[in-house]
Design goal:
Chain A: Belongs to the CTU2/NCS2 family. The complex is a heterodimer of chains A (about 450) and B (about 375). By secondary structure, chain A is α/β, with parallel strands linked by helices. Chain A contains 20 helices and six strands. The radius of gyration of chain B is 23 Å and the shape is globular. Chain B is α/β, with parallel strands linked by helices and about 375 residues long. In chain B, helix 8 packs across helix 11 and helix 8 packs across helix 12.
Chain lengths: ~450, ~375
């Protein structure tokens, strides 16, 4: 044992582990200051920095003092904890992973594959084979027609994605490459192009994407949708939503579980920072497709660059933002209903039971475009419009009045835009229109072809 | 070529009529809504909105004594002016006073205090000045010398808050009004999100705060844009009963605090300025988000009590001002700054004392009047 280690042990014995790093052990006080410094600096120079966890391998600079192996284990540990403590995946599930090609969803895919392989190995080894292994499918949404990406880039990306997914077996995974405009009978390019606000356009594409993912999940029989949203992406969303006046609905989009949809959405890598996921991709040579990074003149782009500045100032800022958002009250739909916890061991099940605390569990009314729960004020103006018009209300008006204030401002057409309200409404995908609240209430009186 | 284009542009803009009255020519684009309006409509809409905020939120009752926190800066000067105008115009029945805090910042506060003294004469509102020196025994100049430029804004903010309350009680005020505008509140909402301060996040958008404390304080400028407060005094238009217009420039002091550049709030401020350029209503949207946040019932929130030392409102045993002051007086400038390290309190003091002795610094204990 070196002298330093002896001293450290003695220090521990005297002060205990709660002592801060400022404590100066009594032994060393007697030494000459110069001698001590010399010894310390030699120590720094000669030895290689070891991993702070296993102490054996060399620590990597980009891994917070950990070696490559411990770093991967740390991230996988976060993923596994998120999945198990939120009962995200059950053995009978058919899980659809949304793969954008970027590093975050690449890691999500990799970890889900690992979890699935381990489950398969257990199943192979088990005698009873009573519990099946969950199946995994992958979907890539092809949006080059409605966004400004170059279509030849899209072809290259698709080939790479096919190759990535084909290597992730056994067990093999179905890959669905879906051009977004094939899912709905409307001219989505014209629809998106008619939105004058840049931020509104980006957000609307995002809402269309979710609608499309749900459509694919429904058509192919998947019952869960996995999104590879990192802590950084969530932190960005927190600031974006705040800045758009969506403080009420913000908690809905930042939880581990979101059951507003037919295929509930789960976020298993919600606790991993984007930087960490990019580092992991580099270490493990996980191939991912570079998404074109255009400078965005939108609010979303401004928030992105703001977060980058904050990150440079303090790397844990994103976690703090997430923690703040975590203290906001989630909605009823941010937990699975009790029958979803069928496969959770009984000792853990009480944790998931939804506790009735006397509050009325009235279902939230959702905006048909962005699915945000409406505030009391927004709901009041919807009801007001309904009362004023009664049965005279046109389908288009009913739809517009059901939307939240943010979608009203940045997505719905205003008088001075080139497309009229009717024109816009006619181009909307039918599934989006069907979600409108007022439509629900007047649908018995509508002669429509659905 | 350029000259022709410029004059054509001028022709185009001068031909436009005010979108509110449709009579006079539009003189400016309203920062809040980007509407093109004339000067008169700007004043009307500016003052009218503030009046509606005051009425709809029941900010005042007739007969109340109101202390206007006056720094000499644009917000408090415009506040003093507008409040005294609206008080007369709409018969609020309020007794208005100017309350100014002298933090002891040479070259900044001494100049801005001259402005407030001029405001006292110009608006006919009695002025009370309270200084850090007489309350705490320290000026900001001395504090910055002791602690540097990183956390000085914390000291100033905490001390000012208590100073305002004490000053207000000295003049027997029922309420304090401050010139915090929409930009300030939006910055505070963002700052509290970035810092994880859920307790402050839940309170910072309230238009009236401290109703259960010593003296409530309210912010009539909660929905007023900083840019509009800047525009207002420069093109003030007043019709006398001889119906001739004269331009009056409201007297205010327009330099930033000399110790402010390193404040963390600067991050949020820069972001909001960029945001306003893309979407002006985003400032009000941030405030709306702040109002709509619902805190989870499982979150532990601080409980309100009183300071053991001075009796001021506090969620801890000792109020922040007492903690900071103790730190200053004992030569421990980091006391009360940042998070507490478990079990290292004792060693910290030992270390700091040794450090100070080495540097030859010895700050004698200075105790101001800390009894509230």
């Amino acid at each position: 044992m070196s002298e330093r280690e002896t001293q450290e042990r003695r220090h521990m014995a005297v002060c205990g582990s709660a002592c801060g790093s400022n404590c100066v052990p009594k032994d060393i006080e007697g030494e000459e200051e110069g001698e001590r410094l010399k010894r310390l600096s030699l120590d720094e120079e000669s030895s290689v920095r070891r991993c702070t966890k296993c102490g054996e391998e060399e620590a990597r600079k980009d891994c917070n003092g950990l070696c490559a192996g411990c770093f991967r284990a740390y991230l996988y540990g976060k993923f596994k904890l998120a999945v198990t403590s939120n009962a995200m995946i059950s053995p009978t599930d058919k899980v659809l992973v949304a793969f954008s090609g970027g590093p975050s969803s690449r890691v999500a895919l990799e970890f889900i594959h690992e979890m699935q392989s381990k489950a398969l190995a257990c199943w192979d080894a088990s005698n009873s084979q009573a519990l099946p292994v969950f199946t995994v499918g992958v979907v890539f949404m092809e949006e080059s027609n409605i966004s400004d990406e170059l279509s030849d880039q899209a072809d290259v990306a698709i080939d790479q994605i096919r190759s990535i997914v084909s290597r992730l077996s056994p067990p093999s995974k179905d890959l669905h490459i879906v051009p977004i405009e094939s899912l709905f009978s409307s001219d989505l390019t014209k629809l998106v192009g008619s939105i004058s606000d840049a931020t509104g356009r980006e957000d609307f594409v995002r809402h269309l994407r979710m609608l499309s993912l749900q459509r694919v999940a429904f058509e192919f029989g998947y019952n869960k949708l996995v999104l590879g949203l990192s802590a950084s992406a969530i932190a960005r969303h927190v600031l974006c939503a705040t800045v758009k006046g969506q403080g009420y609905s913000l908690p809905a989009d930042v939880q581990y579980v979101d059951t507003r949809w037919k295929a509930p959405v789960v976020l298993p890598i919600r606790d991993c920072l984007e930087q960490e996921l990019v580092t992991l991709c580099n270490i493990e040579s996980l191939k991912h497709v570079q998404v074109l990074d255009r400078p965005c003149a939108s609010i979303n782009g401004l928030v992105s660059s703001f977060i980058v500045r904050l990150r440079e100032d303090n790397p844990s800022r994103e976690h703090t933002i997430l923690r703040t958002a975590g203290k906001l009250k989630p909605f009823n739909f941010n937990k699975f209903s009790s029958n979803q916890y069928e496969y959770v061991p009984s000792r853990l099940r009480p944790k998931f039971q939804f506790v009735q605390n006397g509050e009325p569990n009235s279902p939230e009314v959702l905006c048909p475009i962005c699915a945000s729960p409406l505030t009391a004020t927004e709901l009041a103006s919807t009801r007001c419009a309904q009362q004023m018009k009664g049965l005279d209300i046109k389908e288009m008006e009913a739809f517009f009045w059901s939307c939240c204030q943010s979608c009203h401002f940045q997505i719905l057409p205003k008088e001075e835009t080139y497309m009229s309200g009717e024109g816009f409404f006619d181009l909307l995908p039918k599934p989006m229109v069907k979600r409108s609240l007022l439509r629900d209430e007047i649908k018995d009186y509508l002669l429509d072809d659905s | 070529m350029e000259g022709v284009e410029a004059s054509e542009k001028v022709k185009r803009t001068t031909a436009r009529l005010c979108s509110l009255c449709n009579q006079r020519k539009a003189a400016l684009k309203r920062p809040k809504t980007l509407e093109q309006i004339c000067r008169e409509c700007f004043y009307n809409v500016f003052e009218d909105e503030i009046h509606r905020v005051i009425i709809e939120n029941n900010l005042f009752k007739p007969g109340e004594r109101i202390a206007i926190g006056a720094s000499g800066g644009k917000d408090s000067t415009v506040l003093a002016y507008v409040l005294s105008e609206l008080n007369k115009r709409h018969n609020y029945g309020l007794d208005l006073f100017l309350l100014s805090i002298d933090e002891g910042i040479t070259g900044y506060r001494d100049d801005s205090l001259e402005t407030v003294k001029r405001n006292e004469i110009q608006y006919g509102l009695p002025l009370k000045i309270v200084s850090y020196k007489e309350l705490y025994g320290w000026t900001m100049d001395e504090i910055v010398k002791a602690i540097g430029l990183k956390n000085n804004c914390t000291f100033c903010g905490v001390f000012r808050r208590q100073a305002l309350d004490r000053g207000a009680s000295l003049i027997h005020a029922d309420k304090i009004v401050t010139g915090h505008n929409a930009d300030d509140i939006a910055e505070t909402v963002l700052l509290n999100i970035l810092r994880g301060d859920i307790a402050r996040l839940s309170r910072c958008t309230s238009i009236t705060t401290g109703e259960d404390g010593p003296i409530p304080r309210c912010k009539p400028f909660k929905y007023t844009y900083e840019k509009e407060i800047v525009i207002y005094p420069f093109i003030f238009f007043s019709l006398t009963f001889n119906t001739y217009a004269y331009f009056k420039k409201l007297d205010y002091f327009s330099t930033e605090c000399i110790y402010s550049p390193n404040a963390y709030r600067g991050f949020a401020r820069e972001f909001i300025k960029d945001l306003e350029r893309i979407r002006p209503r985003a400032i009000l949207d941030i405030i709306r988000s702040g109002e709509d946040f619902r805190i989870s019932t499982t979150t532990r929130m601080p409980e309100q009590g009183t300071c053991q030392r001075c009796g001021y409102i506090s969620s801890q045993k000792m109020c922040k001002a007492c903690v900071l002051l103790e730190g200053l007086n004992r030569g421990l400038p980091k006391l009360g700054i940042g998070r507490k390290k478990p079990g290292s309190g004792g060693q910290d003091q030992e270390q700091s004392k040794r450090l100070l002795e080495k540097k030859g610094l010895s700050l004698h204990g200075k105790h101001g009047n800390v009894d509230y």
